[in-house]
Amino acid sequence: MTDYWIILTGALVASACGFLGCFLILRKMAMLGDAISHAVLPGIVLAFLFSGSRDAVPMLIGAAIFGLLTTIIIQTLRGQGVQSDAAMSVTFTALFSIGIILVSLFTRQVDLDLDCVLYGEIAYVPWDPLKLGGMDLGPRAVWLIGAAFFISLVVITLFYKQFKLCAFDPALAAAIGIPVTFFHYLLMGLVSLTTVASFESVGAILVVAMLIVPAATAYLLTDRLSVMLGLSIGMGTTSSLVGYWIAKLLDASIAGCMSVTAGVLFLLAFLFSPKHGVITRWWIR
Amino acid sequence: MFAPVSIRNLSVAYHRKPVLRDIDYDAPEGELIGIIGPNGAGKSTLIKAILGLLPLASGEVKIYGKPYKEQRHLVGYVPQRESVDWDFPTHALDVVLMGRYGKLGWFRRPKAEDREFALECLQKVGMESFAKRQISQLSGGQQQRVFLARALAQDAQIYLMDEPFVGVDAATEKAIIQILNELKQQKKTVLVVHHDLQTVTEYFDSILLINMCKIAAGPTREVFHADHLQKTYGGRLTVLPETSNMIVTR
Fold first, then answer.
1. What parts of the sequence cross the membrane (chain A) (predicted)?
2. Residue B239 belongs to a domain with what CATH number?
3. CB-based contact A168 B69, cutoff 8 Å
């Protein structure tokens, strides 16, 4: 049973991240996921300090606030003429460092160390169940990440045309009255939420990898946005499934194997994609 | 009677550097209007300011007497072709369909009749056979036509076009100018940012010459002459022999 919970958690993280990752890639903001996933650390620590518990809800709120703060700071710096990638790096390294300082200052007050904040371990997911009235409802992580994924799905489905036009042609979007900035922050809010919900239970590397790699793979395989969204979920789920069995075979890090599998799938698409593959194009020529 | 586009004391600045200063202009209704000026004169900025895409340092823009926010549905927009990523995963018809989004409001999705209308617009620009073609596989001229079709799908009264003739083949240029003339016959007002001086007299009924400030505006045959061009382009204009023939001399 634990096998299936771990695979399900991995698949949910991969799907939730990959789905949003499509929009990050199309808006040329792939690194933003990386930035947010680090910059939320002070939010998590402050939430710990204020609530005094490892409860998920205050932590999510704290992290979401810092996720949004990150995007606001980046946007402001860019608006004032700072290079886009420099603005991102400056912001997230600064916030991440503040988070580390907070952890080192307050570890005595709260039972909290860097390991548990930064490197959640997917292997332990099945042993942290959600209990309601004494009933075991399955791992807490599954519920948390599942909820984040569900919220993203609903929001993106509801405002699909707005997100699409904002990604393709923000000038036209603004001209016809779509609040482009609102949708930018809405997307960033979803990214923060998903990142944080996943971060704590499965670790940073898996989140950052799944935000970019499945979406990048899907981008190589299709010319339709809707198909790309579906494919990114498929790629993520496959990575989780295959990655888990490889990890079991090698007795190695599960998150690592899942990420590597996603990377291998990307490489395959890069070489053999029917339209864009390097080898395919060479073969046709 | 209100002008389709009326601009009063408009100034725009980027990072505190003025780009446009004190522009006053009323666009005549039902005409093809060229916005002419050298690179960096603020032509695109003017269009974006009309569309409310940039904060104004001062002044105001009215569309048929009301703020742009209340009149969005009357205005169609063709951005510069290079302003978007043509590797975006979508096809030509889908891009044209985006022109319908403004009419759909927050939650409605494009319906069969929107699709049909979009296809008609593609037909008008002679691109119906490319409807399902991935947009990166279109030539520059074809991409420009898709953009024009998208503006047609907006079904507007006023069209603002940013450099629609840049980097297109001769056939596309002809197709575009034909569409513009059809729009004029339907009493629509079309403002086009343009930089090819040789075609100005042929294409436009009236022009607006700008270089940060307004230099001159009015019917092409009255305004398009060497004095004004020299003022607009400063020392940068070398009047070529073939261009000078077209410029009305006084």
1. 6-26, 31-50, 56-74, 86-106, 141-160, 172-196, 202-221, 228-247, 253-272
2. 3.40.50.300
3. no
CB contact under 8 A, B88 and A177: no
Q: How many domains is chain B built from? A: 1
B88 interfacial to chain A (CB closer than 8 Å): yes
Task: State how far residue B172 is from chain A, nearest Cα, in angstroms.
Answer: 22
What residue in B sits closest to A228 (Cα-Cα)? B89
Residue with tokens 């951005």: B79
**The pair of three-digit structure tokens given for residue B94, joined into one six-digit string:** 């889908």
The residues, ordered by sequence, that sit 6+ positions from A119 with a Cβ below 8 Å of its Cβ are: A203, A204
Q: Which domain holds residue B209?
A: 5-246
Q: What percent of chain B has pLDDT over 70?
A: 94
User: Chain B residues with CB inside 8 Å of A171's CB?
Assistant: 48, 51, 53, 77, 79, 83
At the top level of CATH, which class does the domain A2-284 belong to? mainly alpha
Contact indicator for B221, B50 with CB cutoff of 8 Å: no
Q: List B194's β-bridge partners, or say none.
A: B36
Q: What is the mean pLDDT of chain A?
A: 85
Residue of B nearest to A159 (CA): B107
Enumerate residues 6+ apart whose C-beta is below 8 A from B104.
Answer: A161, B110, B114
pTM: 0.87
**Cross-chain Cβ contact A171/B134 below 8 Å:** no
In this predicted model, which residue has the larger pLDDT, A88 or A135? A88
Q: What is the pLDDT of residues B88-135, one digit of tens each?
A: 999 999 999 999 998 888 888 888 899 999 999 999 888 889 988 999
CB nearest B79 (choices: A161, A162, A171)? A171
Tokens linked to A205: 């590397």
Tell me the pLDDT tens digit for each residue of A177-195: 999 989 988 998 888 888 8
**Nearest CB neighbour to A165, from listed B15, B101, B134:** B101
Question: Which of A108-112, A222-226, B32-36 shows the lowest mean pLDDT across its residues?
Answer: A108-112
Q: What is the pLDDT of residue A65?
A: 87
**Whole-angstrom distance, CA of residue A95 vs CA of residue A262:** 29
Q: Which of residues 56-85 of B touch A (CB under 8 A)?
A: 69, 72, 75, 77, 79, 83-85
